[in-house]
Design brief:
Number of strands: 0
Helix content: 55-70%
Order of helices and strands: HHHHH
Distance between the termini: 65 Å
Oligomer: single chain
Shape: extended
Number of helices: 5
């Protein structure tokens, strides 16, 4: 089955339905957004050419550009939140006197992975000389 992108009208419907507040609508919306992520957002060129095919001239390229910009804005916020959580955890461990215990646990030596036994190496080297190479031409 060949993948297909949703029509501009379907893309707009996904956006409008995200404002519904009922529980069943939220469950349906979560499933719809999950499947829309690839078919609608990841495969969109965001160049506005879908507007030419749309009977009501909806440009979903602008919508996809907006969605991608929001996703890009989330990365720095997530990183900053993780740094704050790490600092808070470190402070909490320090205040409770367990920081040294935690750090000693984290500095355990790495486990050595077992390796397969190697076959014994032969010290006998066998050279095979053939007369099919240019070096062995007989004149």
């Amino acid at each position: 089955m060949e993948p297909h992108s949703p029509t501009p009208l379907n893309s707009s419907a996904v956006g409008m339905s995200s404002h519904s507040s009922s529980r069943s609508a939220q469950l349906i919306l979560a499933d719809l957004q999950k499947s829309y992520e690839y078919q609608g957002a990841d495969t969109c060129a965001a160049d506005g050419m879908c507007q030419e095919k749309c009977p009501v001239k909806i440009n979903t390229g602008d919508l996809i550009k907006h969605i991608r910009a929001e996703q890009m804005d989330m990365a720095p916020r997530s990183s900053a939140t993780a740094k704050r959580m790490q600092a808070a955890a470190s402070l909490a461990l320090g205040l409770s006197g367990r920081e040294k215990m935690t750090m000693s646990w984290m500095s355990l030596p790495r486990l050595q992975y077992p390796t397969a036994p190697r076959p014994p190496y032969s010290t006998v080297i066998t050279l095979v000389h053939t007369c099919h190479t240019p070096m062995c031409k007989q004149e």
